[in-house]
Amino acid sequence: MGAHHIDDDLREDGGEKPVTAPEASPSTRAVDWRAVRGTVVRALSGGVRWLGLAAASVLVLHVLFVVGEGNPDNGIVSFVEGAAEAVSLGFEDLFLPDDAKLRVLVNFGLGALFWLVVSSLAAKIVRRIGGEDA
Known about the structure:
By secondary structure, the chain is mostly helical.
């Protein structure tokens, strides 16, 4: 590595050497922000849908355990009952028929439908705000 001379950039035939762009390293590579945004929007939208589906599934399982007379001492049944109470959002006593099984079927069934509809609408709003096709 000697001293730099002004004629170092000249070719032997007198012309200048072509200037080449340095190769893009992973740290200097361009980022496609539209693709990133689309990925994030789809992930959020999918997460919202999955949360709604999980809440609705818990409510449906609770209905099945009550109507099917699941063992209340069983860990799964008691866990689902507690989770259903947490995600029922006031639907557990919306209607008060005399039959306890019918009460659970109607109220928690409506809660499950609520979660499916609301999560679907929320996912659509997320996609629309994020610029994805709804």
